[in-house]
Design a protein that fits this description.
Elements (H helix, E strand, L loop, with lengths): L6 H14 L39 E5 L11 H9 L4 E8 L5 E3 L11 H4 L13 H5 L19 H10 L3 E6 L8 H11 L5 H6 L1 E5 L2 H10 L4 E5 L7 H4 L5 E3 L7 H8 L10 E4 L5 H10 L3 E4 L2 H8 L6
Helix pairs in contact: 11-12
């Protein structure tokens, strides 16, 4: 569950963070200009291996919906900020409009993160699938978070992929609520292919597809067996071998796991014959980050990637 920090605390911490990175708090919201970052941006706490395997120095850090503690989630501003903070792995959520366009938004309604209620007062409950892509493109997806983000839009998946590519980032893509959108897995793969994201480089090093739906993950694996996939949830120890048949990772909520459970996942070989991995979510504080690191997780998905990175490695030692 995403909980936005108090605005003042978030702004203060972001200012401190960007000062360390050679930027300013104002620059975080000012567009594509990238502050100087010490060494090359890295999504992990060490050099990332194929398909985002953990770095030598600690868990891979994933910017959940972008740097969403400091910018409106799932917007281009959020992934740009993740890049400026030095993180190349970003996570997003994919849903489908009334006229069949894939868009990047978490909720299956528009009310929380856009001005849909004001723009379309007679369209309650403002479901994504009840609006055309053109209608959604008119909505303000930034003002709810802060005035400085007024005018941010809900990006289409293609727009989002193009920005991630421009930023030289990597993507943890979630197929959101596939039961609402029959055929969304195949369509997502089609858009990924059209955007150049299904070549060897992207498939091996820069893309993971996940879902809370085991059927959806299984379908993606069947359509593209070369892709790295992840199941969102915490299967029991007895269930884990079944998941290993069609996925490479189990990505659980951090409150549901233990060191023994993580070790049991690691003991299994996943769909590509390698040891299965665990990327846990949503961890936004230093104490919890160190706790799950001690459990042996391979990755940490977080709204505040700088906080987690500092906790698991210390003082931005890239």
């Amino acid at each position: 569950m995403y909980v936005r920090p108090a605005a003042a605390a978030a702004a203060a911490f972001l200012g401190f963070t960007l000062t360390l990175l050679g930027g300013t708090a104002a620059s975080a919201a000012s567009g594509p200009t990238v502050p100087t970052v010490p060494s090359s941006p890295s999504g992990s706490t060490g050099p990332a291996g194929p398909a985002g395997t953990p770095g030598l120095l600690g868990p891979v850090v994933y910017a959940h919906r972008g740097a969403s503690a400091y910018a409106p989630e799932n917007t281009l501003a959020a992934i740009d900020l993740a890049m400026r903070l030095g993180f190349d792995w970003v996570e997003n959520d994919v849903q489908r409009t009334k006229d069949g366009e894939l868009v990047v938004i978490h909720d299956d309604t528009l009310a929380r993160t856009t001005d849909a209620e004001q723009a379309f007062p007679d369209r309650k409950p403002w479901r994504v699938k009840d609006f055309t892509a053109a209608e959604i493109a008119t909505l303000d997806a930034g003002s709810w978070f802060g005035e400085e983000f007024a005018g941010e839009r809900v990006p289409t998946l293609r727009e989002y992929l193009d920005r991630v590519e421009r930023n030289r980032q990597r993507l943890l893509l979630e197929v959101k609520k596939p039961e609402l959108y029959p055929g969304v897995e195949k369509q997502t793969l089609q858009v990924l292919g059209e955007a150049g994201w299904l070549d060897t480089d992207h498939v091996q090093r820069r893309l993971v597809v996940q879902s809370f739906s085991a059927d959806s993950v299984r379908l993606v694996h069947g359509l593209r067996p070369d892709l790295v996939t992840a199941f969102l949830g915490t299967p029991t120890l007895a269930e884990l071998p079944k998941y290993a048949q069609f996925t490479d990772r189990i990505n659980p909520w951090h409150t549901t796991i233990s060191a023994d459970w993580v070790a049991a996942v690691h003991d299994l070989r996943g769909a590509h014959g390698k040891a299965m991995e665990v990327d846990t979510w949503i961890v936004d504080d230093a104490a919890t980050a160190r706790k799950v690191q001690g459990m042996g997780v391979d990755g940490i998905i977080t709204n505040a990637p700088d906080v987690v990175h500092q906790a698991v490695l210390g003082a931005f030692a890239f």
